[in-house]
Structure formats: structure tokens, C-alpha cells
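Ligand-bound model needed. magnesium ion.
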Amino acid sequence: MSGPADALVAEVMTTGTLTGLPQGHYIGGRFVPGLSGNTMESFDPGRGRAFARFAAGDAADVDAAVAAARTALCGPWRQMGPAERGRILARAASLLRERAARFAVVESLDSGKRLTEAEGDLRGVARAFEYYAGAADKLHGDSLPLGRNYVGFTTEEPIGVAAQIIPWNYPLSTVARGIAPALAAGCTVVAKPAEQTPFTALMLAELLHEAGLPDGVLNVVTGTGAQAGAPLVAHPGIDHITFTGSVATGTAVMRAAAQHVTRLVLELGGKSPLVVLADCDMDAAVNGVIEAIYENAGQICSAGSRLVLDRAIAVAFMSRLTTRVKGLRIGHGLTNPDLGPVNSLRQLETIDGHVRRAVAAGNRVYAGAAIAKPEAGGSGWFYEPTIIEARGADDPLVQEEIFGPVLAVQIVDGADEALAAANATSYALVAGIYSKNITDALRFARDVDAGQVFINEWFAGGIEVPFGGNRKSGFGREKGMAGLRSYCKLKSVVARI
Ligand code: NAI
Ligand code: MG
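Prediction:
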């Protein structure tokens, strides 16, 4: 095997780190050291060891970044037409494709995800810039029919300075799906990546300025949620927040946003049901379940973490699924195993806690249910791919997001019971169904409460498809044209003539 990533992977495997990682925050078009001088460590989850330091920002750095973003709002950026903004995003897309190998290796090293997953993320990130490059000059309002004596129309204006609070599971994909539409709409941005995965957002900021972004249009402040995230979301100089992360932190962000009546999109957790009916294509459904819950070691807000399975095929299906899952190979993300590590020791302990409680309560275990032994000599954070049967709808295994490679199984009788089970949690992010009967599948799509429904392929779709949740999964939409409108404020103009 040889590819553009090989030399970088070899460097990590021999030295434990990579040379040339970005240093400092990215503010006003350049890398700057943190004002306090404090730094913190980022870890390689596959080894459980720190590999680099980065700036531990605080309120002073956030002030500088917000000031740069506000100034940039009135600078050359405002004079650029939408087509020119689109050209910058298109250049960024091609630069991302050229440099995909380095971005993917850094993403894999910092988050733990398999390299092939990170390479897939990079293709998606380039697509996001390409998609919104094409949308920048097609964002228009309506004309309003008020009769002969009036002219009425609406315009879509950039909302202003948009803050992005980013999680550690999809560091680059999440920041890109916020930044690309924000820039297409003419906003400026301050992004705060997760403290577990700071590097690819910094690399992206540098790349976008190389593509032609004026100084200060995109700023990145690194650091913890408490020290850097909290002052950003409470800042009076921001006009919009996009937050992706936990329900608890999302609630705190919503409270902070209320002080200045700041607009908000919340992408929170999920406990998404994957329904398998008796007439499904069994191979497709088994593959679908494996991808839905073991991709990125289950650390996905839209993971299919509940298998809602028709009793008529339960024995055969569970036997096939369990055999496949027991054969999954665990290893360092850069070695492309079937399943990589989880992102942090804290996350590993959280996952183990959920599973231990289920085992203690007497739930049936089909596979896994233990911390996995790292590869020889290794010290990374691995969890065995796990399948556990739930005991009724109130089981914590059904109700609580675990955010790890743990599948809860709920056995039901037929499509109606499956729908009831699917809808019986406080989350409503995505839902999926495997059935050859398109009427059953579309009725499920109609009746299930979810922001997105997958039929016969989990994770189907791309940047074109609006994404977001209902209920405790949050509100507002990213991706698609709906995602672009999140960064706009609508103005109505009416003239008497
Ligand atoms: P978190 O929600 O606390 O962190 C997400 C981001 O918010 C990070 O950038 C963090 O620095 C920032 N943050 C933390 N406190 C903040 C505050 N007061 N103000 C502004 N920003 C703040 O998530 P955490 O603790 O890393 O993970 C805990 C659980 O959250 C996971 O086990 C998982 O269940 C869930 N989660 C869900 C994600 C999703 O994609 N919906 C992503 C990451 C975590
Ligand atoms: Mg890391």
C-alpha cells in the first residue's frame, strides 16, 4: 500500500507526533500566541499519550478574535460580491483536495478516528465548500404581491459575526459545515474547536486565507469550554451561535445566548432508532447496523444506537450480526482497523459506566461489554464493539446517549410497535428503517419524529441534505440551503409608489 498519507503516517508511528502543526490562535489573518501564554496538551487516543501542545485561550483571546471579526465585517469582505465570495470557497475546496492527506492524518491522530474515515470526512469537507461556493450567488429574497401601488421585496442579509462551538468527534466536518455557509452568506466567524481536537480548524483557517479570505473574516480560538467557549457564547459582539455537543452544555449555551438575545442553532445528542422489519434485505441491514453504531467508535450524534428489530427475524438477524461484530478488529486509527479508539479516557470511562450498569441490571449481552486491551505495548483508549438487549422502553440503555460503540437492541412485533419504540425517547435527531415495502418505509418516515430519516441506508445523503434535530436533539438546521439561511437575516422592504 502506498499513498500520499504514507510518509505522514510513518512519521507519526516512529516519532509519536507530526512536525509543522499550527501554533497559537488564528486571529486577524495570522497565527498569534495566546495572550496569557498558557498552553495545554492534545492526546493521541490510539496511544493515550499527548503528542502536541496548543494555546489555552481565555476571555482576552476571545475579545481579540471577536474584535477582528467585527472589524472584518465592515472591511473588504463587505465590498466583495457574492460571486467573489463563492470563488474563494471554490478555491478552498480545491486546496482541501490537494492537501487532504495531511488534514486527514492530523484529524485521525487528534481524534482517534480511522484514517479512511478521516479521508472520507475530507471529501465531505471539500464538498461542503464546493456546495456553498455554488450557492453564494443564488441566495435571493422574494417579491411580495401587494397590488399596483406598492413594491415589496425581501433580502437575505448576513447575520453578522457567527460563533461556532465545535465538538471532538467530527472536528473538521463540523467546523466546515458551519463556516462554509456562514462565509457564503457574507458573515464573519469566530470558531472554538474542542480542546481534545484543536488542530484541523486552525489548519482550515490558514487555508481559507490562502484561498483569498480577507484578514479577520475567520478566526479560531483554542482552549477549554469553560475558559474559551463560555466567554465566546456570552460575548455581546456576536450575532449568532452554532453549537454542536452535549445537551447539558447546549442548555448552558442557550442560557448564555439569552443575555444578549443571540440567535442560536443547537445540534445536540441523539438515541437514534434503526428499525429492521421482517421483509428487509438482511445483508444490507446487518451492514447498515454495523456502520450506524461502530463508525467512529459510535461517537456520532446521529449514530444508530438502538436496533429496533422485528421478532419474526430476531434470532437469525442477531446471530448474523453478532458473528460479524465479534470479528471486528480494533487498533490505532492510523493503521485502519475496523474500529478505532474512543476519543478520551473520560469518554472510555463514561461508556464503561453505562455498560456496567446494564450488565449489573441483568441485561443480555450479545457481544463485547468490556474495555478492550490495547495492541501490544499500547496504552490507548479502546472499547469492545458491544451489543446488549434492552429491558423495556424505560431501560437507561434505551433512553440515555452513550456515545460509544454500544448497540441497544429492542425486539418488537411489526411496524406499528417499531414506530412506537422509535418515538419513545426524549431525542429526535435521525431515524432509519430497513424494509423492502416502500409503503411501510414511507409511512414510518411520515410518522417518526426526527430531523432526518434514512430508508435502506444509514448515513445516506451529503451536504445537500438539511440536518438537525427536534426535541432534546436541538433546533435549527445545518447543511443544504436551510443551513445557508441559518446565517441570514431576512429584511422586508415595502415602497408606496
Ligand atoms: P461538550 O458539549 O461539553 O463539548 C462540546 C464543545 O462545547 C467543546 O468545544 C467544549 O469545549 C465546548 N464547551 C463546553 N462547555 C462550554 C460552555 N460552558 N460554553 C461554551 N462552550 C462550551 O461535550 P463533552 O463534554 O466533550 O462530551 C460529553 C458528551 O456530550 C458526550 O459523551 C456525548 O454524549 C455528547 N456529545 C455530543 C456531540 C454531538 O455531536 N452531538 C459531540 C460531542 C459530545
Ligand atoms: Mg486529541
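DSSP finds 17 helices and 22 strands in the chain.
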